[in-house]
Amino acid sequence: MKNKSITSRDEDFAKWYTDVVSAAHLASYTSVKGCIAIEPNGYAIWEKMQEILDKKFKELGHTNVQMPLLIPESLLKKESELVEGFAPEVAWVTMGGSKELEERYCIRPTSETMFCDYYKDHVSSYRDLPKLYNQWCNVLRWEKETRPFLRSREFLWQEGHTIHATEEEAIKETDKMMEVYKWFHHEILAIPSITGRKTEKEKFAGAEYTLTNEALMYNGVALQAGTSHYFGQKFSKAYDVKFLNKENKLEHVYQTSWGTTTRMIGGLIMVHSDDYGLVLPPRIAPVQVTIIPIGSSSEVLDLVDKYELLLKNNGISVTKDLTDKSPGFKFAEAEVNGIPIRVEIGERDLKENKITFVRRDTREKIVESKDLDIVKYVKELLETIQKDMYNRAVERRDKLTFEAHNLKEMENILNTQPGFIHADWCGDETCELKIKEIKGCKSRCITEEPLIDGKCVCCGKEAKYHVIWGIQY
Amino acid sequence: MKNKSITSRDEDFAKWYTDVVSAAHLASYTSVKGCIAIEPNGYAIWEKMQEILDKKFKELGHTNVQMPLLIPESLLKKESELVEGFAPEVAWVTMGGSKELEERYCIRPTSETMFCDYYKDHVSSYRDLPKLYNQWCNVLRWEKETRPFLRSREFLWQEGHTIHATEEEAIKETDKMMEVYKWFHHEILAIPSITGRKTEKEKFAGAEYTLTNEALMYNGVALQAGTSHYFGQKFSKAYDVKFLNKENKLEHVYQTSWGTTTRMIGGLIMVHSDDYGLVLPPRIAPVQVTIIPIGSSSEVLDLVDKYELLLKNNGISVTKDLTDKSPGFKFAEAEVNGIPIRVEIGERDLKENKITFVRRDTREKIVESKDLDIVKYVKELLETIQKDMYNRAVERRDKLTFEAHNLKEMENILNTQPGFIHADWCGDETCELKIKEIKGCKSRCITEEPLIDGKCVCCGKEAKYHVIWGIQY
């Protein structure tokens, strides 16, 4: 409907973000506290994410299934760390129809429980392994503070849950899926994320270890976007998922889980968008090109149709805007919606044999001959935009990447301009908690890069890990 | 894992059904009462259904969105018929984390409420109309008796919710979407369903009228599989969804909703499958062809690879089974899983230049020269199977379609062999309730066919409607 004006990004980042979400019709608040309605433009991005990731998962041998939304309390309680981690933030169903339930159910905050419960009845021998299952579904976590896409009580995600006959194989799976998430961010979303292992404090409740994919937003705040967990036999022991191994002995399975969510849409916005609205990398844009006629002569309209058909037949996602809105209005709409390329075809220009391309990322206007090879030209321009957006994001990330050698330096950085802060750490949780006191700064991940100076940024004692720190969403 | 034996369909239909669901790995019971786990083979059918329907919806101008899972009680209560219709069967969330909620939420049994709540803030002028939204999601209804796919507490579905500027346009949409469901059943699922209007008693709570798509199972029991509702302005008045019409006057929008669910998988099974397991029509089969080598000579394996590649490159969904199981085991597995065509390639046969095709629907073996045009041959055979399955289903439906002129006749039919029973009706609910006393027989739909003898099958008075009756799942 109304195209709200967008607050300046540099002036008020939080307000700018919600303005873009609203102006680009990505999502809308609802009468349900902390839950959003994902609107057509937002859902189309999620569909595109699903399409690309699902194809990759299937290529790697995974299949989709669907487990129940509800988890009986007794089942959830079998794994103590999991229940401690999630109990404070689950929603409880206590009534069915007009009857009080004998046992209450929680709405899944994640589905390790249900997958274990399933696997225990469906695996008996090493021949049944591995099971490489994934599901696309909704989950609920009773968050206090919420923000569209980034943190909402209900969100959509995919959760892979695999079980294996050996530790080695399960660890390989955990790594592989983190590589998929990294690939997806770098190659498709044009987001130069970093990956590494979570500290003990920050890992998933019940996991042996957690790998994480961390993206840096334009404002220097980090966003966890994709995690991959190795469970070892923790859950399989709690839920009694056993198999006969090759030596004909009963053994508990080795397990992983990995997930990405609709919060990646939030990441996309906060890395690439600007004061004019959404900016989408071509590979994830549901619509890559829009053609807008100026005037309605048959010459103009014929060319619009011709280009549309040519592009469509060559696998480019294209629309044309033939509504009776003014050209200026259409331009603004294409811009706020983040369509990577806008093609303007006007009567006057055509007389000079010219058409205009407008790049959404740079807002640059390029005048070309109408006789150019439109398919080749657009394909190359889309690739250029994708590459340029990635490079700009790398530049921004690098500009906001710092190194700290002591607490004072860390404090200075966080008070001036947050970002990814590299600093050595002794491995002691006391130090981790002390750092957290500075604006809630947390360890993003432990990297495999060499130590910086070998001294803990907090206590100055011998460091064990090179850690990347940052404030998070 | 273990391939359970399947009870004979004619001996115990209910047991046969659950045996097929289990043996074909479509779904499994869970620790959550009334909720199933949809296994890979079952979910793949749902993905195929989604793919085909979603494409059709989008061709017709619909876009996907996602509304919240939870509905505040106060919002649900705004439309009295809806709340009366659904309140007895919703699940209530009363706690978030460890806190009792101020207002309880129900888990959506359907989403008219949430769509109205959204539309009221996003529509102001006739220029904003129509809104043609759909969502793919899970819903929950606290059913007492459940059966995999046919009736479970949680199920997956799509729900379209559209709003329009005129009654005429909304009615057209209601009809059009019923045509889509009918097309989907006849052309894709090979199920010769019938369509018509529900009686006042059987229509959706709050609808002006409901159109329904009704399929007849092998045992003569009917299955409602897809409904399309016209709401007029009932909901838009209750939820205050208004727009400025072309005459610049405020008017309430005209609304529709329409849905199909995972119960269609149950319908597929009960129309087509047999004592050997699942039988799938080629157009909905996730895997259309499986190639099974007998022996492991390079000649055999090369041909398996060659055929696989040829079929795959021509848009046919094909797998090969190269595991170390015995050929007989592989044949049985392909059979129980309902793969339409099995290609057997054996060393001995190849010496005679022969390969064998096995149709799943008829279990017929066809020996052909290995030099045939495999792509052409398989494409034609898939189409033949699709057509033959449809024709057999029509034959079965017609065999189980009856006509009744009085209550005695109706009773006789229902006690001997249930099916679709054509009979005239006066339109009085008393008669409808009296008929229901015979084995729970309900009106399936009012057809537009002419009256049979003009007399109500129950009271003998003047009939208003030609109705199709039947026992239902």
Quick overview:
The structure is a homodimer of 473-residue chains. Chain A is of the alpha+beta class and 473 residues long.
The largest pleated sheet of chain A is described as:
7 strands, mixed
- Low-confidence runs of chain A (pLDDT<50, min 5 residues)? none
**Domains of chain A, number:** 3
Count interface residues per chain for the largest interface: A-B, 57 and 56 residues
In terms of quaternary structure, the protein is: homodimer
How much strand of chain A? 25-35%
Tally of alpha and pi helices of chain A: 14
User: How is the largest sheet of chain A built, in terms of strand order?
Assistant: 3-7-8-14-11-10-9
CATH architecture of the largest domain in chain A: 2-Layer Sandwich
Give the termini distance of chain A in whole angstroms.
30 Å
CATH topology of the largest domain in chain A: BirA Bifunctional Protein, domain 2
Helix content of chain A: 25-40%
Q: Tell me the Rg of chain A in angstroms.
A: 25 Å
Report on this structure.
2 copies of one chain form a homodimer. By secondary structure, chain A is an alpha+beta fold. Chain A folds into 3 domains: 13-272, BirA Bifunctional Protein, domain 2 (2-Layer Sandwich), CATH 3.30.930; 289-381, Anticodon-binding domain (Rossmann fold); 401-470, Translation Initiation Factor IF3 (2-Layer Sandwich), CATH 3.30.110.30. Helix content of chain A is 35%, strand content 28%. Chain A is built from 14 helices and 23 strands. In chain A, the strands form 6 sheets. A 7-stranded mixed beta sheet of chain A has the order 3-7-8-14-11-10-9, sandwiched between helices. Chains A and B meet through strand 2, helix 2, strand 3, strand 4 and strand 5 of A and strand 2, helix 2, strand 3, strand 4 and strand 5 of B. Strand 5 of chain A pairs antiparallel with strand 5 (91-96) of chain B, so a sheet runs across the interface.
